[in-house]
């Protein structure tokens, strides 16, 4: 895996159930926003954008889904299906989330608050910014 990086989240096992904790030492960025995706209909896709500055960490809290990462030079698909493992996506990487299982919940920890101007929502614009060195 070269575009995204999987990071293990500490898991505390107990006969009463497991517990995982994300503290500031786990992620290579400070986070300002946490949100989650759920009830994604069969066949629907999420993402379909890149961020200019924002970094994100995605976790499948329940179920599974695939994250397709693209940086123009390479593309990789990462399966997320463990609540104690997340995917770090740096800024400047195109992402698409798809193949959500029934009941899947995707937690996203983001380095910044929502700013529309940080999004690149058209793949051709993204490709042009990469090729011209503007991203």
Automatic annotation (TrEMBL):
Which Pfam families does the entry mention?
FdtA
Residue ranges annotated for the Sugar 3,4-ketoisomerase QdtA cupin domain, each copy included? 7-128
Q: Per its UniProt record, what InterPro entries does this chain match?
A: QdtA_cupin_dom (IPR008894), RmlC-like_jellyroll (IPR014710), RmlC_Cupin_sf (IPR011051)
This chain belongs to the protein called FdtA/QdtA family cupin domain-containing protein
Protein species of origin: Hyunsoonleella aestuarii
């Amino acid at each position: 895996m070269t575009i995204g990086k999987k990071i293990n989240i500490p898991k505390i096992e107990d006969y009463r159930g497991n517990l995982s904790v994300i503290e500031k030492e786990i992620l290579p960025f400070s986070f300002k926003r946490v949100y989650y995706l759920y009830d994604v209909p069969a066949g629907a896709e999420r993402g379909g954008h890149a961020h200019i500055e924002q970094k994100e960490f995605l976790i499948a809290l329940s179920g599974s889904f695939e994250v397709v990462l693209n940086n123009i030079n390479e593309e990789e698909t990462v399966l997320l299906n463990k609540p104690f493992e997340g995917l770090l996506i740096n800024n400047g990487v195109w992402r698409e989330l798809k193949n959500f299982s029934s009941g899947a919940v995707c937690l996203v920890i983001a380095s910044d608050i929502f700013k529309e101007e940080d999004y690149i929502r058209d793949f051709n614009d993204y490709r042009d910014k990469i090729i011209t060195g503007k991203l």
